[in-house]
UniProtKB/TrEMBL annotation:
<feature type="transmembrane region" description="Helical">
    <location>
        <begin position="189"/>
        <end position="207"/>
    </location>
</feature>
<feature type="transmembrane region" description="Helical">
    <location>
        <begin position="163"/>
        <end position="182"/>
    </location>
</feature>
<feature type="transmembrane region" description="Helical">
    <location>
        <begin position="242"/>
        <end position="261"/>
    </location>
</feature>
<feature type="transmembrane region" description="Helical">
    <location>
        <begin position="70"/>
        <end position="89"/>
    </location>
</feature>
<feature type="region of interest" description="Disordered">
    <location>
        <begin position="405"/>
        <end position="426"/>
    </location>
</feature>
<dbReference type="InterPro" id="IPR001851">
    <property type="entry name" value="ABC_transp_permease"/>
</dbReference>
<feature type="transmembrane region" description="Helical">
    <location>
        <begin position="138"/>
        <end position="157"/>
    </location>
</feature>
<feature type="compositionally biased region" description="Basic and acidic residues">
    <location>
        <begin position="414"/>
        <end position="426"/>
    </location>
</feature>
<feature type="transmembrane region" description="Helical">
    <location>
        <begin position="290"/>
        <end position="310"/>
    </location>
</feature>
<protein>
    <submittedName>
        <fullName>ABC transporter permease</fullName>
    </submittedName>
</protein>
<dbReference type="Pfam" id="PF02653">
    <property type="entry name" value="BPD_transp_2"/>
</dbReference>
<keyword id="KW-0472">Membrane</keyword>
<feature type="transmembrane region" description="Helical">
    <location>
        <begin position="29"/>
        <end position="49"/>
    </location>
</feature>
<keyword id="KW-1003">Cell membrane</keyword>
<feature type="transmembrane region" description="Helical">
    <location>
        <begin position="109"/>
        <end position="131"/>
    </location>
</feature>
<keyword id="KW-1133">Transmembrane helix</keyword>
<feature type="transmembrane region" description="Helical">
    <location>
        <begin position="330"/>
        <end position="354"/>
    </location>
</feature>
Length: 426
C-alpha cells in the first residue's frame, strides 16, 4: 500500500496475536520451563554416558549402532520414568494410596524447603542476599527446644507455642543481620556466613552439654525428642508419613509473603528499596528500617522451616545438622522462583520431586543421586542465563538484548570506520 501524498510505503502493524505470542515467548515462565527441559536433556546425556550398558554397546557402535541407541533410550527413559514414579504417581501400585504416595513424599520434602526459600526470596526483593537461612533454622530449633520442650501443655497450646517460639528465634537471628546492615553498613553476605558458623557451633555445643539440650540419660550429642503434643499431625494418616500439617503452614506463609510484597504498603517500600535504595531514600522511605523488617521476616520464615524439621520431619531429636542442607538449597529455589512467592512455592515442589524421585532412580536403575544434584545445578545455571536459553530454542530476544546487540554492531562499525580512516590518512 502506498501513501499518495508522500509516495512512501506504509507498513501495517503486526497482528495483535503475534505480539501476544512474542510477549509469551519472552516471558519468565517459558524461559523457566525451557531451562528445566534443557537441564533434563543434559542430565539425560550424563545418565547415558555413565550407564554401563551404554558404554558396553558403544564399543561396537559402528558395527551395530542400533544397540547403542536402544541402550541410550532404555537408560534415559528408565531413569526419568523412575523419577516420575518416585515423585508423582506410581502407576504400578496395587491401590490408590500407594499410587499417590510418591506425590505426598514430594510435598513432604518440599515443605521445609519452600519455607526457607520464601525467606531468601523476600530478602532478594529488598536487595539483600540472605544466605543465613541455615543459621536461622538452627537457632529456631535451639530456642524452641530450650523454651518449650519441657512445658507439658495440651497439644492445642504446646504445638503453636513451640512453633511461635521457633519462628521468633529465627526472626531475631535474622534481625541481627538487618540491624547490622542498617546501622553499620555491614555486608549481609559476610554477616550471614559468620552467623551460620556461630549458630552451628552453638547448637552443637548445646546438644553436648547435659542440662541444656542434650537428651537426658544419654551421652550422645543429640537433643531430647520433640514432645508428642508439639508434633504436627499427619494430614492423611500413617500411610503418608512425610505429609503433615506443616505443609498447610507453608501454604499460609506463601499467601502471606505474596500479600506482603505485592499488596501491602510495607511491601511497596520493600520493592522500592530493592529496585533503587537511593531513589527510595530520596522519596522519604527509611531504607534502614526496611532492611530490618526484611531480615526479621526472612529469619522468621527460615525459623518456620526449622520448626517443620523438628515438629514434623525429624522428631527423634536434633543436632547441628538438623538443617540438612535446606538453608543453602533455599537459595537455589528462590532463584528458580524468580524471588516471587508463588514461583518459589512451585520451584520448591519441583526440587522436592527431584529429591523424592532420586531415591527411586537409585533403587530401580542404579543411577547415583548425584545426577539429580547435577540437574538441579544445571537448572539454576540456565535460569541465570536467559539469553542462552532463548538462543538455543530460537526464542525472540527481549528489548534489552536487542539493544545490546545494536550497540555492539554500532561499536564494531565505528571501529571499522576508524581503522579505514587511519589507513586513508596514512
Amino acid at each position: 500500500m502506498s501513501d499518495s501524498g508522500s509516495g512512501s510505503e506504509v507498513i501495517p502493524p503486526p497482528p495483535r496475536q503475534n505480539l501476544v505470542m512474542r510477549d509469551i515467548l519472552r516471558g519468565n515462565i517459558v524461559t523457566t520451563i525451557l531451562a528445566v527441559v534443557l537441564a533434563m536433556i543434559v542430565g539425560g546425556i550424563l545418565i547415558a554416558i555413565t550407564d554401563p550398558a551404554v558404554q558396553q554397546a558403544a564399543v561396537y557402535f559402528f558395527a551395530r549402532p542400533t544397540d547403542t541407541l536402544v541402550a541410550i533410550w532404555n537408560s534415559v527413559s528408565g531413569a526419568y520414568v523412575a523419577l516420575f514414579q518416585g515423585s508423582i504417581v506410581n502407576f504400578g501400585a496395587a491401590n490408590f494410596g500407594d499410587a499417590i504416595k510418591p506425590f505426598t513424599s514430594t510435598l513432604g520434602f518440599a515443605t521445609p524447603l519452600i519455607a526457607a526459600a520464601l525467606g531468601v526470596a523476600l530478602a532478594f526483593r529488598v536487595g539483600l542476599f540472605n544466605i543465613g537461612a541455615r543459621g536461622q533454622m538452627l537457632i529456631a530449633c535451639g530456642v524452641a527446644a530450650l523454651l518449650t520442650f519441657n512445658l507439658n501443655l495440651p497439644m492445642w497450646l504446646q504445638l503453636p507455642i513451640t512453633l511461635l517460639a521457633g519462628i521468633a528465634g529465627g526472626a531475631l537471628w535474622g534481625g541481627i543481620v538487618g540491624l547490622l546492615k542498617a546501622r553499620t553498613g555491614a555486608h549481609e553476605v559476610i554477616v550471614t556466613i559468620m552467623l551460620n558458623y556461630i549458630a552451628f557451633y552453638l547448637v552443637t555445643w548445646m546438644v553436648r552439654i547435659p542440662g541444656i539440650l542434650q537428651k537426658p540419660g544419654s551421652n550422645q550429642p543429640i537433643s531430647s525428642p520433640t514432645p508428642e503434643n508439639a508434633r504436627f499431625p499427619l494430614l492423611f494418616g500413617d500411610q503418608f508419613p512425610l505429609l503433615h500439617a506443616g505443609f498447610l503452614f507453608v501454604v499460609a506463609a506463601t499467601v502471606f509473603v505474596w500479600w506482603l510484597i505485592e499488596r501491602s504498603s510495607l511491601g511497596f517500600r520493600m520493592r522500592a528499596v530493592g529496585e533503587n535504595p537511593h531513589a527510595a531514600r530520596a522519596a522519604g522511605i527509611s531504607v534502614q528500617r526496611v532492611y530490618i523488617y526484611a531480615m526479621l521476616f526472612a529469619g522468621g520464615l527460615a525459623g518456620l522451616a526449622g520448626m517443620i524439621q523438628i515438629q514434623g520431619t525429624i522428631t527423634s531429636g536434633f543436632d547441628g545438622n538438623i538443617d540438612a542442607g535446606i538453608g543453602f538449597d533455599a537459595i537455589t529455589v528462590a532463584l528458580l522462583g524468580r524471588s516471587r512467592a508463588w514461583g518459589t512455592f512451585f520451584a520448591g515442589i519441583l526440587f522436592g520431586a527431584l529429591k523424592a524421585g532420586s531415591y527411586t532412580m537409585q533403587a530401580l536403575q542404579g543411577i547415583p543421586v548425584d545426577i539429580v544434584l547435577v540437574v538441579q545445578s544445571l537448572i539454576v545455571l540456565f535460569i541465570a542465563a536467559p539469553p542462552l536459553v532463548r538462543t538455543i530454542f530460537f526464542l525472540p530476544k527481549d528489548d534489552s538484548e536487542r539493544s545490546a546487540r545494536k550497540r555492539a554492531r554500532a561499536a564494531r562499525k565505528a571501529a571499522r570506520d576508524d581503522t579505514r580512516a587511519k589507513g586513508v590518512i596514512a
